[in-house]
Structures are given as structure tokens and as C-alpha cells.
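Are you able to produce any protein sequence you like plus the matching C-alpha cells because I've never seen that pairing?
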Amino acid sequence: MADSKPLPSLDGDPKAAEAWLRDVFEIIVDEAIRKGTRASEKVCEWKEPEELKRLLDLELQSHGEAQEQILERCRAVIHYSVKTGHPRFFNQLFSGLDPHALAGRIITESLNTSQYTYEIAPVFVLMEEEVLKKLRALVGWSSGDGVFCPGGSISNMYAMNLARYQRYPDCKQRGLRALPPLAIFTSKECHYSVNKGAAFLGLGTDSVRVVKADERGKMIPEDLERQINLAEAEGAVPFLVSATSGTTVLGAFDPLNAIAAVCQRRGLWLHVDAAWGGSVLLSQKHRHLLDGIQRADSVAWNPHKLLGAGLQCSVLLLQDTSNLLKRCHGSQASYLFQQDKFYDVALDVGDKVVQCGRHVDCLKLWLLWKAQGGQGLEQRIDRAFALAQYLVEEIKKREGFELVMEPEFVNVCFWFVPPSLRGKQESPDYSQRLSQVAPVLKERMMKEGSMMIGYQPHGIWGNFFRMIVANPMQTRADIDFLLNELERLGQDL
């Protein structure tokens, strides 16, 4: 017989638990929200790994600690974490801290349910379908299917698996022995999840045929056709083309209409990885960048990026209406998906996915959309484009800054040329020395905590900065600060 006494700590004492949680929320509001989004505060409090381990006291012990000590641990976790909602966090494709989306995340975690059956997640099953319906309509589909996924990489892998199953349904039971050698086609600018997906699904990375991109990072349709012919000549069976709308580094948009024409002519599944660029569909001014996306079979889209819905919020959208998701992934577990339930069992959506337990990711986007409306979200997108263009114009005015290329999206790629390298472009070691600048400046900015901006080499180019303009809190003052800070940090180089 179970012990009737409550467990130690706050278990069995609802009033104490509520009071303690109020204290936690006060710390969250003060440290993560108020200070974490204030330009005068640090973006990060850099510590070396060994020192950080010591400060956090990470080791787990046999005995519990006093609640006051746990509160201090909560404060320390926030203090030493990177503040991605900070207006000077330019480092990733996600940033900002929307209060309505945050409210959705808090409610989601508090309810702690799984998005697999209507009986335990009735609100979210209906909500998810409504949100997916809205996103499909923006793509240009009046019907279809879809699912929220744990990240854009998984969305891309699901698309790959669905395309393979549609072509060779026996592979679900018989596995790889039911398949001939298959070929996937994607641009050299694609996200690395295409290669990871091919490896994970047993197709192998050799099955991924890399299509050339032009100088702006866009897939060249003529080379796609050539690669398809080459694969067939080598005995492989083409089955999937993965195009990209908004590449990770350059922010390029593949020519979808031309690619779709090739896919239609050759009978190939067209997947569009719009994880980064999909939110541009909300902008009447800029949605032309995705012209032709309605011709795709599947689309990956991450509202946690440009829309600021908060990690993670990723969808896979399908034009299919034949229940392909469930046919491909379903296993009819009888303890979850009983067919004699008292409600419509079509509402039990859990068999559409490989997961069993699935996090609720629709509420944060739904609340954000309810608060902002489509028009408010459109203004966010347009403002991000305008602020990115402001950065471009400021870079052109300043000595020591050089654009990699004129951007068409909110990825602004540039070099900071320090005083010692200005006017020395003809020197044989110029490119090598210029490539060493970004890592030094990144270390300096992080150790000061003043801002964060990403850098990388790319193709023939050495290290350059990739500035992402996505946080709706960012202003021209933050852009000016970025440029001034790079000048200050690099004045001795």
C-alpha cells in the first residue's frame, strides 16, 4: 500500500507550490524578459566551460535543496544563458521574444499534454488543423494535409520519406530491399538536413545529387535536368527534388516555377524547404520570391524563425489529400488508436507521425496570430526587409565595410575590413588575413557581451559576417550600434 504521506519538497502543498512558482515567474520576468530584451544589458555573460560548470554547480546530488536555493539556481541559469530576445542578438535565424507567443509556450508547458489523440488534447487537435489550414492557404492550396514537426530538419526528412513511400509503398514493410538505387536532387546551397535525412532513411548520402547554383545561390534548373539525366544513365531512379526558399547563409530563393516544370515533366516529387523563407508568404510586397510554391508536393516552414513564434514551431505542409502521412507512418497502436471510441477517430492524428508523444507547438503561433492578425504579421515581415535594406545602405556609406552581395532577403552578408587591410586588396595574403578578422571580432563581442552576430566561410569566400534582421524589436539604432561596435572592436586590427 502506498505511503499516504506527501513526498518531500513542495509535493502535497499546493499553496507553497503556487507561491514558489510566483517567485519563479518574477525571476523570469525580471531576468529573461525585462533585462533579456533591454539594449543596455548584455546579450551574454561569457564564461569558459570549466568556470561555468563551477558557477552552476551542475552535479546532481542524493538530497534535495532548500527552495530558496532552487530560486537562485533559476536566476543563475537565466543570467549565464544567451539572451536570444535581445535586440542585439543577430546570430541565428530566430530571435526576439513575442509576449503572446511566450504566453502560448507557458500555457503549453503547464498543460503538459501530447498531441496524439483528441481525448487528451481536444483543444490542440482542432487548433493544429486550423493553423495548418491557414498556412496551406498561404501556400496556395485549398486542401491538403500537414503536421507540426520537431524542427525543419525533421520536416525535410518526413518529406523525403513520404516521397519514397508514394513511389514504393512496399518499402514500409520490406525496407531497403524493396528499392532500386534512388536519387535525390538539391542545390549545393541546401540545408545540411537533406544529407542527414538521406543517411537516416538508409538511402545514403551518395544518393543526394548536388545541383549547381548561380552566383546568388539559386539552383540552376538546366543543371537539375542534366543531373537527372546523369542519374538515370548511372542506373539510379530519380524520385525527389528538394528546392530551397531562403537559404541559410545567403538567403537565396530557388526559381520554383522552373524547377516545378522539370519535376512535372519528369514525374518527381517537389519538396520546398521554406523553413526560413516561408513567412515571406504573408507579405504582399515580397511573396513573389516564392512564386511557384503552390506547385510543390510538400513544404517545410518554420514560424519560429521570421514570425518569432518561439522555438520550436515547424510545420510540414502537404498538397496530398489521400491520407499519405498516416499510410506511410501509421502502425495502429491499439492502446492509443482504438477504432470503437465514442468520437470521430479521424481526430486522433498521432499515427501521422513517427513519434508517439508529440509536443504541442500550435498554441504559440495561434495566440501570436490572434494578437497580431495577418496584417500585423505582414507588417513585421515588411519591416524586417526595410531594416535589412537600411543596413545595406549604411554599409555602403562606411569605410571598412564591404558587401558580399546585394541581398534579396533579410540575410545581409558582409566583411569588416580593418584599418591594416584597407587598400591592400591586391596583396597575395589579403583574403587569408581578411578571413581571420571575423573570428577575432566574434570572440571580442561575446566576451564583452555587447552583441552576437554569426560568421562563416562560404564557397570561394573566406569568413564573412551574416547579419540576420528578424527581431521585431530591432530598430535603426541597433543597426547603427552593430556597425559602430564592429569598428570599435576592430580598430586595432
The longest helix spans residues 363-397. DSSP finds 15 helices and twelve strands in the chain.
